[in-house]
Amino acid sequence: MKRLTIAAMILFGATAGLSQFGGIINKAKDKIDAAKEKTQKAQDAFTPWSPKDEQDIGTAGAAKMVAMFGIIEDPKVVKYVNLVGSTVAQYASRPLQYRFAVLDTEIVGAYALPGGFIFITRGALTGMTNEAQLAGALGHEVTHVAERHLEKEIRSKKTSEFAMEEANSTGKTGDLTALKADAFMKDMFTSGLSRDKEDAADEQGTKMAAQAGYSPMGLIEFLTSMRDAAKNPENKRMFGQMLSTHPPFDSRIARLQPIAARLGPGLTLDDRFRAAILAK
């Protein structure tokens, strides 16, 4: 009888123990599942697009940019901008076929699309005075593409237009590349990159221009001219989304100055720039 009682007590104790540990085990399982989910999200955020995805989205996005603004088709301007851009892009961290075009708009801006499509606006060129400034601005955009900055930014934000479109694309019919390109364009025009990515593009773009033989002061000079022009309320429309999606000009200039000073002198090529861009 005692043995039965002891056995019953052991069984009761084990059952009670299982009951108590059940909650702990369930909590532990929940934590493990949550950790797995976080790991999967982290993997999704840092998994780069395939070369085909990158090229397809960039191509579709570039077509939309041209449709929105139009492009400058002057052969002299096209050749010149591509020459300067390609000269700088050869020092990019990732080799791609970088292609450059001038958007026919007074808005001051430059845009980097996946796959190596780089746009600068007529308004931006109008605010420049030499080739080194163009080289620095194009180097900034090339860095965004080479380092996949916008791609990483939007993949890490589940609230981005692109991320939501990607999540909802299952079962959709039609041209998914076009849908994703639309979402990508919305992100590009409405969302700013993180400060570290903009700083990296400023720094690396300046260094690439210097490696190509240009004055490292080029981007600083361009940022300074934009800062001064932006102070005029009449010019607000010209800057589009740049003022809201980029860090303040003053802080960018201050950060670049010691970097440029360490890189030493270089060419500005004022006359060549005037002949190609400013000559009537």
Tell me briefly what this model is.
This protein has 280 residues and is mostly helical.
Residues in helix, %: 55-70%
**How many helices does DSSP assign?**
13
Radius of gyration, in angstroms, nearest whole number: 27 Å
Q: Stretches where pLDDT falls below 50 for ≥5 residues?
A: 1-21, 35-46
Q: Structural class of the secondary structure composition?
A: mainly alpha
Strand order of the largest sheet: 1-3-2
Mean pLDDT: 78
Number of strands: 3
Report the major sheet: 3 strands, mixed
Shape: globular
N-to-C order of helices and strands: HHHEEEHHHHHHHHHH
For the termini, the CA-CA separation is: 112 Å
Chain-wise SSE layout:
Elements lengths: L1 H45 L4 H19 L5 H15 L9 E5 L6 E4 L3 E5 H5 L4 H16 L2 H7 L5 H7 L8 H15 L4 H17 L6 H13 L11 H4 L3 H15 L6 H9 L2
Parallel strand pairs: 1-3
Antiparallel strand pairs: 2-3
Description:
It is a single chain. The chain has 280 residues and is mostly helical. It has a domain at 48-150 and 194-278. It has helices at residues 2-46, 51-69, 75-89, 122-126, 131-146, 149-155, 161-167, 176-190, 195-211, 218-230, 242-245, 249-263, 270-278, and strands at residues 99-103, 110-113, 117-121. It has a three-stranded mixed β-sheet with strand order 1-3-2, sandwiched between helices. Helix 3 (75-89) packs across helix 5 (131-146) and helix 5 (131-146) packs across helix 10. The longest helix is centred in the first third of the chain and has 45 residues, at 2-46. The chain is globular, with a radius of gyration of 27 Å. The termini are far apart. Residues 1-21 and 35-46 have low confidence and may be disordered.
